[in-house]
Amino acid sequence: MWMDTKAEEKEASRSRASLGQRVLNGLLFFTGDMEHLNKYMQDKVFGLLLAVWGLRGVSRVILANNPLSGALILAALCWASPWQALLGTLGVLTSTLAAVIMGQDGAEVSGGLHGFNGMLVSMLMGVFSSAGDWYWWLLLPACLGSATCVFLFSGLAPLLDRWDLPVAVFPFNIVIVLYLLCTGPYNPYFPHHPATHAGPMEINATELMAVEVLRGIPLGVGQIFACGALGPSLLILGAVLLYSPLLAAHALLGSAVGTLAGLSMAVRHESLYSGLSGFNGALGCMAVGGLFFTFNWRTHLYAIASAFLSAYADIALSNLLGTVGLPACSWAATMIATLMLLLTGSLSTYRIPMGQVMSPEHNLRSRKQWKAGKTAEGESTNV
Fold first, then answer.
1. Residue 2: pLDDT above 50?
2. pLDDT at 204
3. What three-state secondary structure class fits 293?
4. What is the mean pLDDT of the chain?
5. Which GO terms describe its molecular function (predicted)?
6. In order of start, what are the domains of the chain with their CATH numbers?
7. Is the distance from CB of 50 to CB of 108 less than 8 angstroms?
8. Would you call 346 exposed, middle or buried from its count of C-beta atoms within 10 A (0-12, 13-18, 19+)?
9. Which of 8, 39, 203, 235 is exposed most, by the fewest CB atoms within 10 A?
């Protein structure tokens, strides 16, 4: 009887372990780049394909490539502002459709590479518009600006491919600045708020509130989507976590570094509290900390350095462009990440070719397998 009970307990323990393993495998099925979804979607109707491509484009804004992450981000944007969510959805679909019509590379289109710039352009048009929410005329420049991003992407790609560099958000930064220069704050059809510089703080500014500064760190992740609410920002961070825990950790770290850089330069309190001081640091840290480089302690230190440089460059550009009422957008993180990719020396040995960039965890596993294969090959050669 005692032996039967013992055997039943072992069987129940194995059953629980197998159930836990199945649950874990099921969760892992939805993480990373979800390559298996591409095979499943091959023979589906175009509307469903467009939806998946669009969701990948949404997640590409924050350097991920996961349609479920994109769905969570859209939910966060709807929570924060339905109007901004509508503009973002319109932008990503318009630019993706424009890429299909222009006959762009199928892998790039299905991977969302032609969607994220269009989404950012349309959303930022809404953010800077002084006409208020649900100003339907804004849909016209949003569509045109999103489609223009595809032209710039296809034009810049051959130039940057020579150095194996990503086009990144150069099209977005170019188009939004041109749009704001064309319209101006007092345009009768598309007026916008002039941007303000990052610092210095006001002479009669009140004391800095530590709780608000700490709150600004997760808000720095949300500000990548121009989202300044805490709940939606945490949901966006959760979407990054679903794609890659390493990337999510570097997003928070980079935002904290950007906030620290803002404190060191005594920028306006509002920039610290709203997360605007942190989002360029978050992007710079994410780009180097496992996405375009294999993660290790060296690239981790480079990621922190990239976050500091991105944050300081953003402060400088904000002060410069703010004098003419223009925002610095994500010029700082884009330029610093590009320079990091051009570096030679020890860092370049950990760089991942653009065509092989996937989630940081996948990149890390691939490098370990490659090094193990090289070691085995060397041992067999010696024998």
1. no
2. 43
3. strand
4. 87
5. urea transmembrane transporter activity
6. 44-194 (1.10.3430.10), 196-372 (1.10.3430.10)
7. no
8. exposed
9. 203
66 touches 31 (CB < 8 A) = yes
pLDDT tens for residues 121-151? Answer: 999 999 999 998 999 999 999 999 999 999 9
Those residues whose C-beta lies under 8 Å from the C-beta of residue 378, and which sit 6 or more positions away, are none
Q: Give, as one character, the DSSP assignment of residue 287.
A: I
| Other CB atoms within 10 Å distance of the CB of residue 381 | 7
Q: CA 334, 340, 343: angle at the middle one, nearest 5?
A: 145
Mention every residue, 6+ apart, whose C-beta is less than 8 A from residue 66: 30, 31, 32, 33, 34, 56, 59, 239, 242, 243
Structure token pair of residue 33: 């780049």
Distance CA 53, CA 71 (A): 11
- Answer yes or no: are the C-beta atoms of 183 and 144 closer than 8 Å: no
Burial class (CB in 10 A: 0-12, 13-18, 19+), 77: buried
* Separation of CA 248 from chain center: 10
Structure tokens at 19: 């159930």
Residue type, 25: N
Residues 6+ apart with CB under 8 A from 185: 130, 191, 192, 193, 194, 325
Q: What is the pLDDT of residues 29-50, one digit of tens each?
A: 678 788 878 777 788 898 999 9
Q: What does DSSP assign to residue 192?
A: B
Q: Rounded to an integer, what distance in angstroms lies between the CA atom of residue 190 and that of residue 126?
A: 10
CA 132 from centroid of its chain's CA atoms: 26
Strand partners, 293: 351
* pTM over 0.85, yes/no: yes
Coil, helix or strand at residue 198: coil
What are 191-245's pLDDT values in tens digits? 988 887 665 555 445 678 889 999 999 999 999 999 999 999 999 999 999 999 9
